[in-house]
Each structure stands twice: as structure tokens, then as C-alpha cells.
Design goal:
ABC3_permease_C, 862 residues, 52% helix, nine-stranded mixed β-sheet, membrane, six-stranded mixed β-barrel
Length: 862
């Protein structure tokens, strides 16, 4: 008996697949795209997880000793055990020079070399890195010509810089500390390492130490092992003699011994921190992808099954058992999902490679190990294959559970106009949760606000999907009469068809709501913050000129030289860095990296006006003071005279005294430091810009005077009109940020648009019987085609309006909580969204209708 039931189910599945191949083709496209997208994100995340900074500078070292670049914070969440979070430091944490002697005395160590670096440039503007000649062994440099430098006036150039340039004994102009100095080339060095180490200039060790500007501290220690000593043995031997801490006053950084591929971590100190940021963003986007994919799979499969509800009810009425129907539907969905999984798995690899290429613009290359492509393809395909069968069986549950007599009536009954009670309750709950989450976002800041806003958007989209039929009735009540007036007979037919099938209408505009809401949130978040930040920065700017020093920046002396130029009334150097703030968000411990500016109080009022609300910025001097933004001061409950606990960019613990509170924190950052407080805790103490206020009389040329004052600092120094971007704390959009925008908006938005096309195509294919009937009763082809156009317009307009409203809730919460302004989306961006949605809706509705023209819109009517 059971075998006969299985045969019957298999027979029904085969016949149904053949009969409904067009509908299943639309399902395969949508679910296959979902599989490809999930697999592509698995591909990129897997590549990021195994990524490590390349070993270039320390290719000749067997081990590198460096300070730990991570900081930790432990706190007790509400009703839970204490929890520890970690974050990477944005600036290099250094070692005390006394650690060098301990490392040199360890067993198995042939040589221990102190390594420091200084950014510099040549006379023609080529960037390079300055190092000490003893550290040349760490990159396997050897003299090809000449000899090693003997005093502070001599240097060795690597062959990349010397190509076509000065030979040993000749002179070279270098800018290592901002000013141009002439050195004698004593030799040319060539490395046997085939990597991409940056061009180097080698000084004597005392000269390099003076240029580095942090005597008593070193960046790292390179270790060369004695012959026959293994990396593990070297690690253990060096680790045994190291102090527990780095030895730098004010720092509690531990000391690490890096061997093998880990040595690259000492070269690119913030590469792993950037990787963590990318992983967090991709994880957040990936969670959205998973939710979108689940929604699309459930929507398309449910629609495909729902369009056959009459057929399933008829089968149930003529004696098919619930088990046979569920098994048949499960077999159909299983075969369809297998095809979709195969196509999606194949597509996941090229899509993942394309996404990876967008992210490999920084210093961290993304590897592709042999196991990653099949694992990513399997992840996307397997997830789709596992989800499709239960979703399809659940969608048919209301029909398969009917008694045969009831099923006979259901086979000819109209579509229910209202969603079930459970669906309605779930939709209301999710709508309330989304609005509540948006409300919570207005009371939070940082990651908590962003997470709450994202959660609000997704909750509201799912609520729209659940409450779609009810929303459809409201939309028809508003748009039905204009549709009839504009469309005449076709408008009447479009309005009546939509009124009779509100569930179908809801299914049609739900993916459009998803596209509009998601893309609007992604595209508006950045411009909202940039606009508010730019407005505050412009309002704070009092300078009319700005000087920049190219890639290497300008030293502190540049601002002093500018102040003495004729016509200059004030000049302020701006040093950029970051601090780490330990705090709690929703009870959870959080480490937040915040960009900050280091400025000089002298003449600050002439170049910047942070809009002080309490205290005095003239007291922003020394190494123990700070000014705090108003919102941050309120959240920390501090004011002038209080102290605030922070970690500087290199991990040094400080508790500076608050001397002022200011309002323009969105433009200038949440903390302003004296430049001297940051200079010793950054990787390179160079001002990114010098702000200049001039007050010369008529006919004077202060810009020319400034250029003359800065002439000793090199030809790459530029002087131009100042803008708010020169002081805005938000940096220009980086390549990594652009990549995330492309991935978040382009890839996922494209997938959602594909879902729009496949869903509408599936609905149109399922209406062939309805179209035939309309043709049989006398409806003309043009009337029918116009009806489809009007229905497409109705679906598109309703989806755009509802999607915009859904996006407005979290965006408003986000903008109010973080920027204190209304959300902003450039009109051109919204126009592109609306145009893309309209094209997708037209493709999903009109093309399938035209493709079936022989039987639907053509002359053959049945």
C-alpha cells in the first residue's frame, strides 16, 4: 500500500512538473539567484577569515617581536556573567628599547635588530620609507654598490629609487622630517626578496632614531635565528625572556612573538582591524541577505503552490490522500530546488570572485584556498535545497488537510480576501516591533543605533509581507477610482482584477517594497551623515586657506613657519588620529574607535569655531586636556573640570581633564586634543592640513607668502582655498566603503529586482486562464495589454510608496539619533531606484504576457 502511494506521488510530481514548467522556471530563477547570493557571501566571508597581511618588510626575519595591537574591555551585562570584548588599535603600539637587549640574549638568536620607520619622499615626490641600515637584513637587502652610511649626512638607496638616479658619491634631496635636506648616497642596496616591499632609504641608526621622533621606543624588533633553530623553538626561547608588558609608560600592551605568516601583522598594524570592520559589515549585510533570500524563496514557492490551489483541491476531492499530495509537492519542490541549487552553486563562485575583487583594494589581499569555491557553492545550494521542500509542503498545508467534500467546494471557491488570524497577528506584532525598534534607535548611538534601525527596516518589510492583503485593500481604496477614470475599460478591468485578488496584489508589490526599503536605507545612511557632518564642519571653519603636504603630511614646524608669513593672522596644524572608548550599549560592553583631531590652541579661534557651550578652548594645551562634544559629554556625564578615561591610538591609557564642551561634534569629532597630546602616540606625527586665516589688505597676496614660507617643505606642498572637507572628521569615502556600497546596494538590490521580475512573471503565468476568459468574452488585445500596463503601474506605485514609508521609519530614527537631522537621499538616487523598479515590474508582467500572446493576447482564445 505504501509503495503504491509513493508511485502515485511520483506520478503526480512528474505530471505537475511538466504541466507547470513555466511557473517552476520562474521559481528556479529566484531560488537559484538566492543560492548564488548566499554562496557568494560565504565565499567572501571565508576569504576574509583566512586573510593575513603579506610578509614583505620582514621577509628576512625569522621572528618579529612587537607590542600587542589589541585592547580589551570587560564588563558585566545585565543579568549575565562578565564578558570581554576586544578591538584592534588604529596606531602602532611601540616597545621600550630596553626589550631589545633581552631579545638579543635569548637562546637561538643570532641577531636582534631594532626597527623603526619614517615616511619620506624624494625631490620628485616619490614616496618611500626611511629605515636604519642595520634593519636592512630584515628585508634581505645587500649592498650592490658602494658602502654603508657612516654618519648623519649619508644614506643608502634601494635599487628601485636609484634606478636612473644618483649613483654612489652623488647627492640626493630627501624630505624625511618635512623639510628638504641633501644627503650623500654612500651605496645602492638590492633585495633578494621578490615581494612588493615599499622603496626604502637607509640612514645610520642614530639619524633614523632622531627622525622617528620617539627616542627610547621602537616600532618592533626583527630576529634572525641561528642555523638549525626552528620557528617554534625560536618563539619559545624569545618568549621566555620577554617582559610581560611592552615597558612603555602608560601602556599595558603585552608583547608578542610573531613567526611565519604572522610577521605581516607587524607591518600593517591596522590590517586585521580593518578586516574585523569588513567582517562586521559583511556579517550585517549577510544577515540581511539571508533574510531577503528566505523571504524570496518563501514568497515564490508559496505563490507557485497557491496558484495551483484549485488543482490540489480537485485532486483531494477525487480521492488523493493528504500524504500523497504532500509527498508529490515535496518531490516537485525537491527537484526544482535541486536544479536551483546546482545553478546557484555554479553562479556563487564567479559572483563571489567579483565581490572579492571589490574588496581587494586595501593592503590586505584576500586568498582563495582550494576548498573555498566548493564550500561556498555547497553552502548556498544546500541551504536552498533544505528550505524549499518544507516551505512548499507548508504552503499547501491548508489544501491537503481538507476533507474531500470540503475540497470539492474549495476547488471552485474564490481566493480568500483576508489573511488568516495567525498571519494578521504576526504582522501586527512585527509592525509594532519595527516601530518600537526605530524608537529605540533614537535613544542610542553608534552601532546600537545602526543595529536598531536595520532591525526596524527588516521587521517592517516582513510585516508588510504578512499584512499584504489588508494593505492591498487600503491601496485600492486610494488608487482604485483614479485607475478607473484614467484607464476606462482597461482601468475598470485592472481595478476589478486587483480587488478580487488582493492576496495576489500583495504578493506582487512585496518584493518591490523590499527593494525600495532596503536600497533607500543603504543609500541614504551615508549621505545623511556626510551632509550633516559637512554642514557642521563648514559652519566651524574660519580659515580661508589650507596647506597640505601630499602623502607624507607636514611636520609641526610647518604651522609655525606659516604664522610668520606676511598677511597670516592665524595658522593651526591638524593632526588626525583615533581613540578607543570603553562603554556599554544596551548593557553590553563595547569598544568604540572614534576618529579625533589634534589641534594647537594658539590661534585656534581664528581658524576653527567648534561652538563652545561650556569651558574655554584656550586651555586646550599640554598632554592632559581634552575638549568633548556636547552629546558625548552628556552620555559620559562629564563637564569642564571632570576627567574622561580613554585609550589613545596606540593603546596608552589616559584620563585627560575636560576643558571645554562644544556643539559641532558631528563635524569635528567627539573629542578634540592638543596636538602634543597625540603626537607621541601616532604612527607618524604629520599634520594632514594646516588651516590658515589671512587678514592682508587690498593688493596683498597671502597665498603666495604662504607658499614661500612652505618652500623648504617640498614641491608637493599645495595651498588652496579651505573647505569644510579639510576638517570634517568623516574621512572621504574610501575604496573599501565604495565596495561595501556596491555589494550592499548593487548585488543585493540586483537580486531583489530579480525577485521582482520572477515573482511578477510567476503571477502573470498563473493568470493565463483569466486572460483567455477575458478574450473569450470580447476583451480586445489592446484593452488587455493596457490592463496589464495599468496593473503594473498600480503595483509599482503602491510598492514605491509603501517601500518609501517603510524606509522612512528607520532612516528617520537613524538620522535623528546620530545626526539630529532629517534623512537625506539625493533625488537622482531615488529616481534611479524608481526607474529600476518600474523596469523590473514591466519586465516581470509585460514580457510574460507578450510571450504567451498566441494563447493570451493573440487571436487564439481557447
Amino acid at each position: 500500500m505504501r509503495q503504491g502511494s509513493r508511485r502515485a506521488s511520483a506520478f503526480l510530481a512528474r505530471r505537475s512538473l511538466a504541466t507547470h514548467r513555466r511557473a517552476w522556471a520562474a521559481v528556479i530563477v529566484a531560488t537559484g539567484a538566492a543560492a548564488a547570493l548566499i554562496g557568494a557571501f560565504a565565499f567572501v566571508i571565508g576569504s576574509l577569515l583566512v586573510a593575513a597581511p603579506p610578509v614583505q618588510r620582514y621577509a628576512g626575519a625569522d621572528a618579529v617581536v612587537a607590542a600587542d595591537q589589541k585592547v580589551s574591555h570587560t564588563a558585566k551585562p545585565w543579568g549575565s556573567d562578565p564578558r570581554t570584548v576586544t578591538a584592534y588599535l588604529p596606531e602602532r603600539a611601540r616597545l621600550d628599547r630596553t626589550v631589545l637587549a633581552a631579545v638579543a640574549g635569548a637562546d637561538g638568536v643570532a641577531k636582534a635588530v631594532a626597527d623603526d620607520s619614517v615616511p619620506l619622499s624624494t625631490s620628485d615626490g616619490r614616496p618611500a620609507v626611511g629605515r636604519s641600515w642595520p634593519s636592512a637584513v630584515l628585508t634581505r637587502y645587500e649592498l650592490a654598490e658602494g658602502r654603508a652610511p657612516r654618519d648623519a649626512t649619508e644614506v643608502v638607496l634601494d635599487d628601485a629609487l636609484a634606478a636612473g638616479g644618483p649613483a654612489p658619491g652623488e647627492r640626493v634631496v630627501l624630505r624625511a622630517d618635512g623639510t628638504a635636506r641633501t644627503y650623500t648616497v654612500s651605496g645602492i642596496a638590492r633585495t633578494g626578496h621578490g615581494g612588493d616591499a615599499p622603496p626604502a632609504v637607509f640612514f645610520t641608526e642614530p639619524r633614523l632614531t632622531a627622525l622617528a621622533g620617539h627616542p627610547g621606543r621602537i616600532d618592533a624588533i626583527g630576529v634572525v635565528a641561528e642555523p638549525g633553530v626552528s620557528p617554534d623553538a625560536l618563539r619559545d626561547a624569545v618568549g621566555a625572556v620577554l617582559p610581560e608588558r611592552s615597558g612603555v609608560p602608560g601602556s599595558d600592551r603585552g608583547v608578542r612573538v610573531l613567526t611565519g605568516a604572522e610577521r605581516g601583522e607587524a607591518e600593517q598594524v591596522d590590517a586585521l582591524g580593518g578586516r574585523g570592520d569588513q567582517l562586521a559589515l559583511l556579517g550585517s549585510i549577510g544577515g540581511t541577505v539571508l533574510m531577503v533570500a528566505l523571504l524570496v524563496i518563501a514568497s515564490t514557492l508559496s505563490q507557485a503552490i497557491h496558484q495551483r490551489s484549485g488543482e490540489l483541491a480537485l485532486l483531494r476531492a477525487v480521492g488523493a490522500s493528504p500524504r500523497q499530495l504532500r509527498s508529490a509537492i515535496g518531490r516537485e519542490a525537491g527537484r526544482v530546488s535541486a536544479a536551483a541549487a546546482l545553478l546557484g552553486g555554479i553562479g556563487a563562485v564567479p559572483l563571489g570572485l567579483a565581490m572579492r575583487s571589490l574588496l581587494t583594494t586595501g593592503p590586505l589581499p584576500l586568498p582563495v584556498p582550494w576548498w573555498l569555491p566548493p564550500a561556498a557553492a555547497l553552502t548556498g545550494g544546500l541551504l536552498v535545497a533544505l528550505l524549499a521542500r518544507p516551505v512548499a509542503m507548508l504552503a499547501a498545508r491548508s489544501i491537503t488537510q481538507l476533507r474531500p467534500t470540503a475540497a470539492l467546494g474549495a476547488a471552485t471557491a474564490d481566493e480568500p480576501s483576508e489573511p488568516g488570524r495567525f498571519r494578521t497577528v504576526a504582522g501586527v506584532v512585527l509592525a509594532f516591533a519595527g516601530i518600537s525598534s526605530a524608537g529605540v534607535a533614537t535613544t542610542q548611538s553608534g552601532q546600537a543605533a545602526g543595529a536598531a534601525a536595520s532591525g526596524a527596516a527588516m521587521s517592517l518589510v516582513i510585516a508588510v509581507a504578512l499584512l499584504g492583503p489588508r494593505i492591498s485593500r487600503i491601496a485600492l481604496g486610494v488608487l482604485g477610482r483614479p485607475l478607473r477614470r484614467v484607464g476606462g475599460v482597461s482601468g475598470f478591468l485592472a481595478e476589478r482584477a486587483a480587488s478580487a485578488h488582493t492576496r495576489r496584489l500583495a504578493t506582487a508589490f512585496t518584493p518591490i517594497v523590499l527593494v525600495v526599503a532596503f536600497v533607500c536605507v543603504q543609500l541614504a545612511s551615508g549621505p545623511t551623515m556626510e551632509r550633516a557632518s559637512g554642514q557642521q564642519a563648514s559652519a566651524a571653519l574660519r580659515a580661508d586657506l589650507v596647506a597640505t603636504g601630499g602623502g607624507t603630511g607636514l611636520p609641526a614646524g610647518a604651522a609655525r613657519a606659516v604664522r610668520e608669513a606676511p598677511g597670516v593672522t592665524a595658522a593651526t596644524g591638524v593632526l588626525r588620529s583615533a581613540v578607543v572608548l570603553a562603554e556599554r550599549e544596551a548593557g553590553e560592553p563595547v569598544l568604540t574607535r572614534l576618529p579625533v583631531l589634534g589641534v594647537e590652541a594658539r590661534g585656534l579661534s581664528g581658524t576653527l569655531d567648534p561652538r563652545v557651550t561650556a569651558g574655554d578652548l584656550d586651555r586646550l594645551t599640554g598632554r592632559d586636556t581634552v575638549a568633548v562634544g556636547a552629546d558625548r559629554a552628556e552620555s559620559l556625564d562629564v563637564g569642564p573640570g571632570d576627567r574622561v578615561a580613554l585609550r589613545l591610538g596606540d593603546g596608552t591609557r589616559v584620563e585627560p581633564r575636560v576643558v571645554a564642551v562644544y556643539a559641532h561634534e558631528l563635524g569635528l569629532g567627539e573629542f578634540l586634543f592638543p596636538r602634543e597630546a597625540l603626537a607621541g602616540h601616532v604612527s607618524a606625527a604629520r599634520d594632514q592640513v594646516v588651516l590658515i586665516r589671512t587678514g592682508a589688505g587690498p593688493g596683498a597676496n597671502p597665498a603666495a607668502a604662504v607658499r614661500e614660507a612652505l618652500a623648504p617643505y617640498g614641491g608637493e606642498v599645495t595651498v588652496r582655498a579651505a573647505t569644510g572637507d579639510d576638517v570634517a572628521i568623516a574621512p572621504p569615502v574610501s575604496d573599501e566603503d565604495n565596495a561595501m556600497i556596491v555589494i550592499g546596494v548593487g548585488v543585493i538590490g540586483g537580486f531583489a529586482l530579480l525577485a521582482v521580475v520572477s515573482t511578477l512573471a510567476l503571477i502573470t503565468i498563473g493568470r493565463r486562464g483569466e486572460f483567455r476568459l477575458l478574450r473569450m468574452v470580447g476583451t480586445g488585445r489592446r484593452q488587455l495589454r493596457r490592463m496589464l500596463v495599468l496593473e503594473t503601474g498600480l503595483v509599482t506605485f503602491a510598492g514605491l510608496v509603501i517601500g518609501t514609508a517603510v524606509a522612512a521609519v528607520p532612516l528617520t530614527a537613524f538620522a535623528v539619533s546620530l545626526a539630529g537631522t532629517a534623512p537625506y537621499l539625493p533625488p537622482a538616487h531615488y529616481g534611479v531606484i524608481a526607474g529600476a523598479v518600474a523596469l523590473a515590474a514591466a519586465a516581470g508582467t509585460l514580457i510574460p504576457g507578450a510571450a504567451g500572446g498566441r494563447f493570451v493576447l493573440g487571436r487564439r482564445t481557447g
